[in-house]
Amino acid sequence: MAMLYTKVKLYLEANSKTWNDEQNNILLENTGSGDYIKTWNVSGLNKPTNEQLASYETAGNTAETNARIDKTRRSQYGSWESQLEMLYKDQKNGTSTFKDHCDKVRSDNPKE
């Protein structure tokens, strides 16, 4: 089940807003019985209904899964220094080590 934060973020983006711009105007809370929107002060955009938020469930699940995959990929790509070293050696030796490494990371961690 997608997190409320993710569904709100997608709702904002679908309405030409961003979480980064609006995060101080929204307060999400959980008092033990589930997440909910406690405060909504987004100029020009009504607070989403439960039905509107529910419509972002599938997209939210995909976004969260892809975010986890991106995090895994970043760790497996290695540091930017090691990536530059691979690129340098590939240029010098006419090899494809860097491309092969990136292709393996991507194939081992496919996105939805």
Topology:
Layout: H1 4-14, H2 19-22, E1 26-30, E2 35-40, H3 50-54, H4 57-77, H5 80-93, H6 97-108
Antiparallel strand pairs: 1-2
Question: How would you portray this structure in words?
Answer:
The chain is mostly helical. It folds into 2 domains: 1-77; 78-112. It contains 6 helices and 2 strands, in the order ααββαααα. The chain has helices spanning 4-14, 19-22, 50-54, 57-77, 80-93, 97-108; strands spanning 26-30, 35-40. It has a two-stranded antiparallel sheet with strand order 1-2. It is elongated, with a radius of gyration of 20 Å. 11% of the residues are buried. The model has no long low-confidence stretch (mean pLDDT 97).
Outline of the structure:
The chain is mainly alpha-helical and 112 residues long.
Features:
112 residues; mainly alpha; 2 domains; 6 helices; 10% strand
Number of helices: 6
Structural class of the secondary structure composition? mainly alpha
Shape descriptor reads: elongated
Q: Strand percentage, roughly?
A: 5-15%
Biggest sheet strand line-up: 1-2
Give the fraction of residues assigned to helices.
Answer: 55-70%
